[in-house]
Structures are given as C-alpha cells and as structure tokens.
Amino acid sequence: MLISKAGDRINGASRPSTVRLIAAIGILQAVASFAYPIAKYGLAIIEPFTFAFYRFVLSSSLLLLLTRLKKHDRPIDKRDYKHVFLLGVLIIPLNQTLFLLGQSMTAAGHGAFIFATTPMFIFILAMIHLRERYTHRRLIGVIAALAGVATIMLSGDIEVRRQYLVGDLIILVSVVAWAYYTIIGKRLVRRYGALRITAYALASGSALYFPFGLYHALRFDYSVATLEAWAAVVYMAVGLSLVVYVLWYWVLKYMEASRIAIFHNVQPVLATLIAALWLGEQLTGTFLVGGLIVLTGVLIAESKQTG
Predict the structure, then answer these.
(1) How far apart, in Å, do the first and last CA atoms of the chain sit?
(2) How far apart are CA 12 and CA 9, in angstroms?
(3) Distance CA 114, CA 255 (A)
(4) d(CA 119, CA 258)
(5) What is this structure's pTM?
(6) Domain-by-domain residue ranges, the chain?
(7) Distances in Å between the alpha carbon of 238 and those of 35, 60, 93, 99?
(8) pLDDT (tens digit, 9 = 90+) per residue, 12-54?
C-alpha cells in the first residue's frame, strides 16, 4: 500500500528519548530557517536551475556515499521501488526546484511564511489518505492559515504584489509536494530507515533533473559567481538536503507528523528576522499581521481537542 495507516510498526531500533527527538527537531528547524535568506542571496548571483543542479548533484552524491558506508538490516522490496521514485519526483522537481524558482521571484520572508502552511496540507492529506479524524478546530485552522497566506501574498502596493505573486504561488505548489512527500514517505522510513530513503529519493529525483540542470549549467556565465554564492550552494546541499531532510524523516519515523509540524512554525519567525538583519528586507505591518494569522491558523489546526 502506497500510504500507510498510523498504526504501522517501526522496524528495528527502539524509540529515542523525547529530549533527543526535540533536539533533532530544533536543529533541523534552525538549519532550515537560515536556508531562506541564504538561498535568496545565492540565487541573486547564480540562476536558479544552475544553482539547483549543483546542489542536487552534491547532496545526492553525499547521501549515497553515507548510505553505502552504513549497514542495513533489509533490502528495499522491489515493489517499493516505484514509491521511492515517486518521492524523488515530489522532492526534487516539484518541491525543491519549484522552491528555488519561487524563492528567486519573491522575498525571503514570504517563502518561510508560505511554508508555514505545510502542517495544514499535511492534515488535509492525512484526513484523505490516512483517514484521520475530522475536527471543526482543524477546519478553522485551515481557513485561518489560508487567509494569512493571502494577506502576505497580496500585501503592499499593486506593483509589489505583481512582483511577488507568481513566486509566492510557485512556492505554494512546492509546499503541497512536500506534504505528499511526508505522508507517502512515512511507511517507507519506518521500514527502511531515514538515511536510505532520503538518499534514494534524492538520487532518483536528481537523475530526473540532471539533463535539464546540466543544460542550464553549461550555459551559465561562471564569471559572475562569487565564493559566497557557491557557499550558499554548499549550505543548501549539506545543510538542507542532507541534514534537514534526513532528520525530518528520522523524527517522522518515531513521531506523528502533526506533532513535528507544530515546531515547523518557528521557521518563518527566524527566517524573517534573519532576512531583515542580513538582507535588509523590510518588515511591513501587513506582512507581520499576515504572518501572525498564518501561525495562529496552523496552531489551531494542530491543537488537540479538549473536553
């Protein structure tokens, strides 16, 4: 079955302590928060598809090397090959390629806040595919989060909205892809482990992207690329694609997606502060209000019913 029910057993090691899991979540959220302004900086110098090409080649190569050095308890069932391949399609062409493209067309803070709606989409997909219980509180949270995203995307004057709207919409599509990547990958991670599934998913997605990325890489004017821009590529490859992706699946192996998702909400706050301090992006009142609505909506959707 492509998407598993919540009761699947976790094969192999016993559950880590809550402290270790929370620490892992804290690390991945901090690393991911820096990715927004760093990607924005690098993409201002290296065009998006060339940037993505080197990032994916580096990250998938490192992950495959780590996978080869680690012993595994069981081989991947041939029936799961197509599922791993689907994860590759979701994470590279649909999630990260679109994220990089969208991030190059909008403000760094916008991408972070739009990604704050990830838990909302995970909840929707979990209700559809995992048949999780519907609640009015979650519905209210979904509507509120969408209203916050609309506030952010339509903030500012008409020229600013036109400038950022397309980029914001592209990032929104990448968010949906990440939500599917999370839901579909849960069963595979429980069965085969976070490192191996992440490595094979990124490798298959990178293989699909390779011809397209190589075409752009060969046409790129390397004289404009600075050392700092290449450092941004390395950060996105090692920090985001390796550290964050592996930790995300590792924690997902032991915790419910909704519990992990609530920590996702620190990203827009940190990313916006970093972008304001580093890139000089302005924090408008409307933007802050929209961000607050997003975070409030997501928190409502993730909170448990009481009484």
Answers:
(1) 35
(2) 9
(3) 23
(4) 7
(5) 0.80
(6) 18-302
(7) 11, 10, 18, 17
(8) 557 888 889 888 988 998 898 888 788 888 989 999 999 999 9
